[in-house]
Amino acid sequence: MQYKKYHFNRLLREFKNRLKDSDSSLDEYNYLDIVERAVKDEATFTIFRSIPGYRDILEHISDELAEKYYVNLREQLSHKDIVDLSKLVKNIGNPNLKKFDRDELNPTVLRYINVALDLRSKFNDYDFNNFVELGCGFGGQALILDKFYKINNYAFVDLPQVNMLIKKFLDLHNPNFKYSLSNIETFDKNKEYDLFLSNYAFSELPKKLQLKTIHSIVGNVNCGYMTVNNFNKISIRYLNINGYQKRLNNLKIFSEKPESYIFNKILIFKN
């Protein structure tokens, strides 16, 4: 009964938002306004990851979930390993920190490390060098992945305002890899990439943009790894499960570990 009520309310929200071309939550939280201010204003940049409208989109991991990420990571890594990896992403922007042992760590970066380990596990026979990521936040996932793979090129695909923030953030880290910044419309389809990566962003695009992304980007990669929400048998605004299965080759579906939400899934595919 609880699931039926959830899906009814979900479909009602999708019906109301079916004609919109973007994620309405970005407007609701003034996300892009905060991003633009962080790019232009140094005072905002020093705290942008703690501003509610940004935090609710990118830095919203609860202490309970952060603890689960840490416990999961400790199955493969020492505490020192986790601390050292976390230091790869500087705490610029005053993010939330949670104490583990005697060290304060950012829960979002713990999730990035978790994704990197899971990616390596699910594609253990692959050595990825060229990445394309859709919906990149401030670029932190790439900085973590660079420790797990020898990255040559990393393509960040996001909104123009977000790309400017990514550049500003990465310039303070001096990454080892070359990178490009584009949006779905301007992505260079002539280059071939090893892996397409998306942490929730693809599944939050309206169906029209999901199909455009598959045509313009996903078709140019060898493999893909996505954490998705909005993954349902029936959907008005987004691709449904059958839509994913028809359009992504050799699709495999996994549960998250740890689970961030009961309906979220991990998808991997190989072209």
Structural notes for this entry:
With 271 residues, the chain is α/β, with parallel strands linked by helices. It has one domain (2-270): 3-Layer(aba) Sandwich (Rossmann fold). Helices cover 44% and strands 17% of the residues. It has helices at 2-17, 24-28, 31-40, 42-45, 52-58, 63-73, 79-86, 107-122, 140-148, 160-170, 201-204, 207-216, 241-247; strands spanning 98-100, 103-105, 130-134, 153-157, 178-182, 193-199, 221-228, 252-255, 265-270. A seven-stranded mixed beta sheet has the order 5-4-3-6-7-9-8. A two-stranded antiparallel ribbon has the order 1-2. The longest helix is centred in the first third of the chain and has 16 residues, at 2-17. The radius of gyration is 18 Å and the shape is globular. 35% of the residues are buried.
